[in-house]
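Hi all, posting the design record for the shared folder.

TITLE: backbone redesign
STEP: 1 of 1
STRUCTURE INPUT:
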């Protein structure tokens, strides 16, 4: 057996195959649902999503084999690069659906806020890795991670993009908790947030207020603001146990369901494949989250462990919020379903996130230098 063959087998042995299999399965389901969203045609959705999958898959595979020391070394550069892109969005961003969230790069529209979530996870992981492993974060040491969170969240909120900004803050909060931040800080911040709700309401855009009011009473305006959620609930309920069959969902195929390729892709899945089909997809997401948490516990370096925690939190929040709003249990905030919803930057960013997760697994035995060790 040649040296190159041995190296190949060693490289393949470093891959967490269950995680990779689950990711590829969900991507396959996503392409199938985009084909359905296009009315049984590859264009416009499945074809474009497939083209975006290819570079995303290459990024994921590349990230697996980059030394974790190299990733940590360039983390802050990646963070400030993404922060610069968010600033560029404010200066010369592309408008779409009433929001300024994209940068036009020829035929491609880049959404920096999706990359910013990943950059923030990595930046927080690196910062807490530099602290002494037995040092509990104090108010002074928390100033920097709070800035790492608040600055991009404020820029994203200004676009406006409340859903992504909220996810960014919640993921950051879960990482702070995993890093050893005391519960009392979260209780104080949570209490202050509740007190500030009436003030925050005044700063919401009219359409954001309308979404909250529609969530509370969708029947108040069934042909207007409440239309989307009513149609979504009807479609999910009509799917029953086994679904109506692929390409046979009436709400989706007859265009009663708006934004079926993005926000309400889970609704299409439920209508066509029923309770059993949607349960399989949810189970795949939950398995990925459990694997991510297992990888976090297996990692012998704090940088990798916190990255795995951040990715598991990001995946859970996206899944929970998207499915919750599809079922009328949460306000519609435009949060896509990872690997299934249509969107190039989101797909590439999520595949990159799984590449990082697989990198943490591949380098789980690597010990990185920490303060005081």
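Okay, here is what came back for every position:
SEQUENCE:
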């Amino acid at each position: 057996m040649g040296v190159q063959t041995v190296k190949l087998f060693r490289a393949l042995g470093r891959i967490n195959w269950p995680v990779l299999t689950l990711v590829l399965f969900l991507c396959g389901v996503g392409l199938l649902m985009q084909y359905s969203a296009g009315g049984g045609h590859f264009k416009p959705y499945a074809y474009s999503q497939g083209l975006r999958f290819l570079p995303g898959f290459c990024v994921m595979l590349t990230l697996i084999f980059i030394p974790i020391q190299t990733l940590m070394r360039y983390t802050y550069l990646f963070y400030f690069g993404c922060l610069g892109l968010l600033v560029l969005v404010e200066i010369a961003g592309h408008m779409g659906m009433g929001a300024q969230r994209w940068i036009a790069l020829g035929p491609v529209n880049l959404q920096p806020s999706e990359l910013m979530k990943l950059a923030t996870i990595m930046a927080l992981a690196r910062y807490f890795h530099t602290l002494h492993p037995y040092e509990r974060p104090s108010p002074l040491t928390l100033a920097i991670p709070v800035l790492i969170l608040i600055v991009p969240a404020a820029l994203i909120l200004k676009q406006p993009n409340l859903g992504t900004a909220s996810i960014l803050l919640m993921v950051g909060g879960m990482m702070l908790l995993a890093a050893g931040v005391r519960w009392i800080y979260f209780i104080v911040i949570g209490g202050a947030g509740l007190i500030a709700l009436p003030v925050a309401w005044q700063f919401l855009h009219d359409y954001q207020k309308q979404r909250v009011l529609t969530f509370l009473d969708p029947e108040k305006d069934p042909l207007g603001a409440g239309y989307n959620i009513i149609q979504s609930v009807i479609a999910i309920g009509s799917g029953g146990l086994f679904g109506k069959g692929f390409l046979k969902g009436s709400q989706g195929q007859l265009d009663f369901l708006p934004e079926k390729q993005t926000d309400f892709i889970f609704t299409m899945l439920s209508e066509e494949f029923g309770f059993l089909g949607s349960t399989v997809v949810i189970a795949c997401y939950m398995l990925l989250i459990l694997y991510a948490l297992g990888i976090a516990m297996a990692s012998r370096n704090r940088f990798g462990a916190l990255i795995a925690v951040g990715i598991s939190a990001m995946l859970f929040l996206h899944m929970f919020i998207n499915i919750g709003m599809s079922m009328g249990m949460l306000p519609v905030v435009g949060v896509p379903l990872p690997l299934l919803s249509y969107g190039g930057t989101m797909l590439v960013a999520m595949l990159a996130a799984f590449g990082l997760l697989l990198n943490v697994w591949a380098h789980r035995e690597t010990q990185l230098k920490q303060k005081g060790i």
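COMMENT: The chain has 15 helices and three strands.
Let me know if anyone wants the other runs.
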